[in-house]
Amino acid sequence: MRFDERFLDEIKSRLRPSDVIGKTVKLRKQGREFVGLSPFTKEKTPSFYVNDDKGQFFDFSSGKSGDLISFLQETERLSFSEAVERLAAEAGLQLPVADPRTAEQEKKRQGLSDWLDLAAQWFEAELRRPVGREARAYLERRGLPESEWARFRLGFSPSGRTALKDYLVTKGARPQALVETGLLIAPEDGGQPYDRFRDRIIFPITDPRGRVVSFGGRAMDPQARAKYLNGPETPLFHKGHQLYGLAEARKMLAAAPNGENPSLAVVEGYMDVIACQRAGVPAVAPMGTALTEEQMEMLWRHHPEPTLCFDGDRAGRQAAARTMDRALPLLQPGKSFKFALVEGGKDPDEVLREHGPQALKAQLASTTAFAEALFIRERDLETLDTPERRAGLKGRLRHAAGLIADKDLQQAYRDDLLQRLDGLFAAARPARAQEGGRPSAKGGDFQRGDFRRGGGRNAPLAGGTPEGMAAAKRLAVTLASPSAALAHVAISDPGVLDEHLEDGFTARGFGEPVLGELVKEIIRLRLEADHLDSAALQRHLASCGFSALLTDIERAAANSGAPMLKDDVSLDARRSQWSRGFAALSRAAALDDAINAAKGSLSGREHMAAFERLKTERDALKRAIRTGTIWTEDGS
To answer: Are residues 356 and 393 in the same domain?
Structure first.
């Protein structure tokens, strides 16, 4: 049976190679790829790689490579048709019926696609002609130079009622076919079709492979009834199944250097997508509607945790809340979202124009995990000043967790949210006592501070006084990166301290006296509270005057190169690396103490030899700490 390219593309777009291949080959994540032992040869060292972004596998031991279809053909000796049938079933697709009508429909679709591509070429040419002068000026004012237009195939539709229609008809198009593409509008009274897009800057909408399926247009006339206009539903274009910019985002993801794991941002408009991609951030946007379930699944096929970026105004915060509700039932291990709000009520395009690409990338990198954003939303619905309202928050959190279909993840969310709740109330109790019973949690909408780790809009000024802030900053200048990395993880995951709560070295600040008081306070709060989450901990530390020091810890930790700080590291791996780093710093400090104690009391060759062995071990550990190899399994 012959399968058309669109059907094969749909199968591949619905399935991640690592998920399918991972059922027969044990794979582990390595950077942006998955690696495992070759299914084609007997080997002890993994040389079989799977790249989801490229949709390919690569086996260096046998020299074989290909896509999911060829993998099944090679490993299970299936024919091409059998492999397609197997994958179609897994993707939830019905096999196309082999009949003349289907073939005719495919031929018709291809014809419509050809007219759309020709229209895109015409729009591009019109932008550069005299009729496009004002559109060119507008793009220049928006900080989008001519050198970038071709990359995004930007165009212009003149104001003439049938300018595009007349051009395409001369090329052999039938007006009715152009109506089916969405390029023309057929009047209900039976009049002659006319151009849908008039006096608008044109943004071609493509499928994941880059083929034009529709258009969006931005009105040049400020009095236009619709500022942005999208094409209608057609045989080629289904608004809820497409994401603007996905083809270019896929290229950017695939082109990222091995070992890097770039984010995938979801923004709100055409210009925002273009701004992000110009800044080097893969980005997409839905077509003026909330994300659909189909779009979410499409995003997860390209990234396990896309970043949902909403404008920082009230509407943006409300859109974030609505997206949470739609996404909750779909969440699974390896399928979630992060949230980012752009500061100052701006959108990504404004940030790029006003502050440059680095500022935009920094704002998109400042994200909040789904569970934390959900907790903030429910926490801020009302003032938590009575037992009834606090019980109401607990009930809302339980209900939200219960919406998750995956039972294991549902339980994990319930535990996480209730731990955050316990931490919030544990941190609030001393505050209420000091403030005469006033609540510490207030109602309101999402704000930028809420999405960041710690702080938040209720955090007091660091140190309480200018002198306190300056003193904390002077102390933090000498902060060592490995110690800062340990402190950073202990703040974001207080559970790592549980095995070391009575350890004097922990209380001395992971080898940095500057951190001593802060770590003591973390340990004290950890011993007091049954559960302690990062947000509550950071709010408490800020209220104790450690805000400036927390900022310096984050900055120094970022320079440490510690692999446990990467976004894609699992909780178990992070805690394991933390324990190795902690053990190395503890041992180095203990050796320093032993060496200092031994000085002045050395006698005989054996004592000197033992002393030199201590120094050699101490120096090797400090070299490992300095070079960052303390985080690896073997320390080398």
So the answer is: no
pLDDT digits (tens, 9 = 90+) for 415-471: 999 988 888 877 666 555 555 444 444 433 444 334 333 333 222 223 332 223 333
Q: For the chain, count helices (H), then strands (E).
A: 27, 16
Beta strands 33-36; 28-30: pairing state? antiparallel
Residue whose C-alpha is closest to residue 446's, from 333, 319, 317: 317
Q: Which residue range forms the structural domain that includes residue 219?
A: 100-237
Residues 6+ apart with CB under 8 A from 285: 243, 244, 245, 266, 267, 268, 269, 270, 272, 273
**Residue 331 belongs to domain with CATH number:** 3.40.1360.10
- Tens-digit pLDDT profile for residues 59-110: 877 878 889 998 988 888 777 888 888 899 888 888 876 666 666 667 777 8
Last residue of a domain, one of 331, 366, 401: 366
How far is it, in rounded angstroms, from Cα 25 to Cα 117? 41
Of 366, 393, 424, the last residue of a domain is 366
* pLDDT above 60 (res 382): yes
354 and 385 in a single domain? The answer is no
SS (H, E, C) 150-180: HHHCCEEECCCCCHHHHHHHHCCCCHHHHHH
Return the minimum-mean-pLDDT range out of 246-255, 321-330, 464-473. 464-473
pTM, full prediction: 0.59
- Please give the pLDDT value at position 632: 67
Average pLDDT over residues 508-516: 75
Q: Both 87 and 104 in a single domain?
A: no
Confirm if 333 and 284 have CB atoms less than 8 A apart: no
In this structure, the answer to whether residues 230 and 251 fall within a common structural domain is: no
How many domains does the structure of the chain reveal?
5
Q: Which residues contact 230 (CB under 8 A, 6 or more apart)?
A: 205, 214, 215, 216, 217, 239, 287, 288
Q: How far apart are CA 5 and CA 7, in angstroms?
A: 5
> SS3 of 47, please?
coil
Q: Which residue has the tokens 């086996």?
A: 59
The verdict on 423 and 399 lying in the same domain is yes
Both tokens of residue 172? 């052999």
Residue 277 domain-assigned (yes or no): yes
Residue 545, both tokens: 């005057």
